[in-house]
Amino acid sequence: MIRRETIRTIIEQEREELNRLAAQYGLLDRRVLEQSVELDELINKYNKVRYYDSQKKKPIA
Q1: Cβ-count burial of 15 within 10 angstroms (0-12 exposed, 13-18 middle, 19+ buried)?
Q2: Using an 8 Å Cβ cutoff, are 14 and 38 in contact?
């Protein structure tokens, strides 16, 4: 599975791209909306990795 830090780096890059697209085309442009969905998916993946990492660290007893 992909590492948290890698996902965080990609999230920041995608967030910058989203902001650039929004400034250039406006918030309702198809490209902006598609980028927003992609960013949401990355954030969900990051949260999933965080959850699984936290479960590995919990003691059994």
Answers
A1: middle
A2: yes
Per the structure block, which two tokens stand in for 60? 């059994």
Please write down the HEC assignment for all residues of the chain. Answer: CCCHHHHHHHHHHHHHHHHHHHHHHCCCCHHHHHHHHHHHHHHHHHHHHHHHHHHHHCCCC
Torsion 38-42-48-51 (CA) sign: negative
Q: What is the pLDDT of residues 8-59, one digit of tens each?
A: 999 999 999 999 999 999 999 999 999 999 999 999 999 998 888 888 776 6
